[in-house]
Amino acid sequence: MLRAYRSSEVAAAERPLIEAGVPLMERASFAVSTAVARELKARGHRVAGSRILVLAGGGNNGGDALYAGAYLARRGAIVDVACPAGNVHEGGYAAAIDAGCRTVADDELATAARAAGVWIDGLAGIGLRPPLRDPLASVVAMLETERATSPDEPIVVAVDCPTGIGVDDGGVSGPVLRATVTVALAVAKPGLLAPPASRFCGRVEVVDIGLSVPGLPAVAALGGSDVADVLRVPDATDHKYTRGVVLLGTGSAEYPGAAVLTAGGALGGGAGMVRLDSPDVASLVLRTYPEVVTGMGRAQATVIGSGVPATDVDRLRGPLDRALAENYPVVVDAGALSLLKDGYEDLPSTAVLTPHAGELAELLSARGEGLTRSDIEAAPIRAVRLAATVTGATIVLKGGTDVIAGPDGPVYAQPARSHWRATAGAGDVYAGLLGALLAGAGEDLARAGRGYGQPALLAAAASWLHAEAAHSDGPIRAGQIAERLPAAIAQALRG
Ligand SMILES: NC(=O)C1=CN([C@@H]2O[C@H](COP(=O)(O)OP(=O)(O)OC[C@H]3O[C@@H](n4cnc5c(N)ncnc54)[C@H](O)[C@@H]3O)[C@@H](O)[C@H]2O)[C@@H](O)CC1
Ligand SMILES: Nc1ncnc2c1ncn2[C@@H]1O[C@H](COP(=O)(O)OP(=O)(O)O)[C@@H](O)[C@H]1O
Ligand SMILES: [K+]
Fold this sequence. Notes:
Radius of gyration: 25 Å
Subunit structure: Homotetramer.
Domain YjeF N-terminal: 10-217
Protein name: Bifunctional NAD(P)H-hydrate repair enzyme
Binding site for AMP: 427
Bound molecules: ligand NAX, adenosine-5'-diphosphate, potassium ion
Binding site for K(+): 61, 121, 163
CATH architecture of the largest domain: 3-Layer(aba) Sandwich
């Protein structure tokens, strides 16, 4: 699991170590120099003879970059050092000069940038309060143009974070220096995991510098082994009912395929049994999935709304109210989200809402929170937290990175592995899959009560599996994502 902590929490955890003389900066800069060497080697280059540009701001982030430059110069790299902030970390600068680095004047920066195959971005780290001010703002804008137009794009290694991102809120409010790889010191930071900032980070590598940050992370991203920990694997005592029954109120005469796709998601996600309560589309679903049972009945999780137009959702009130009354989990997707615009003031965390940004904007405005779709896309962490607080429910904001929050606990940010996933019906598969994971835990969730954080964790696990199943180098259909879910589950369980 990648765990991200806010800059104030990192700074508080650092303080006693720094006071005790623990050489955090030496460790950080050594890790950065190792990352640079690894990037060079991966492209068939050696450190000796490579041209490297150190971009050093006036804070400790600049210090890390300068000491890293000194290590690399001692290994034979040709290292230029630019300090465009007007001030500089003195110890780091002295070490760099001592190791043979060359200082670049401000008017030589563009030329030095063009000549270097690697840029080390130490302009600002967790001490930055965006938006970036001049002179750094213009320097970053110039470097970004240089990077984007260069025939040989440089490898940009960001120290701790790409300069310019909102480290704590994941926002982007000015120029940002896009990274190839971000070397996160000790722990990730929210902006490294959550969009839009995470889109500027490249690969995120967390390096151990002997600093641990206590408490729950603000943002987390599950890996395969975390998913394996929460999956319910059947044993000799299980039968279809204990594994979890998913009831689907999905699909309609207008969008019949959504019922097929949610059923595929639930079956592929390991449901013990799938029941379908959508008479209009039952024969279509049975043609693809004869395993599905039609009609109402007991279920440990309910999925409603996928492929049901808002004009036809009244029939879903029954299953929704029953799930809420019995405290069983319910996934509220697509058209069914419109049911929540009136009433349903205080939902439990076992109600999991799966909007895209447009649907979340509509839901929030119906609840008196005037956020537009673009406000939500600019600040998804804030939007899901707000929506979870306002509704009491667990929120899955679907997109290139799924951003998930319950009424408390961390926000989960689960990235797509391929953007070919953005295809019609992929969300229906997700809703069915999530239904299966929730049904597997349904009895426990029903017992645990309203504010329990597990639904958000299960939604994050569903996002990981969905991303894995949708991983593709070319176009993929939603139906194929459903078919590949069993392999994704097996992959998580293999570790
Ligand atoms: N505290 C420590 O000893 C350690 C910190 N580490 C490094 O230190 C970094 C944090 O260092 P600092 O707290 O010195 O801060 P930073 O170096 O991240 O940033 C502060 C600098 O940015 C400038 N700045 C802030 N907001 C700005 C804005 N909006 N526009 C333009 N300039 C702006 C400040 O004037 C200051 O020069 C971490 O990200 C990490 O790289 C590591 O060396 C590990 C140990
Ligand atoms: N840019 C993107 N890259 C990867 N996945 C995406 C992107 N945008 C959306 N997705 C995913 O595609 C699916 C779309 O779901 P949704 O908007 O409900 O569409 P539909 O109703 O057609 O299924 C979600 O699982 C979402 O996470
Ligand atoms: K940086």
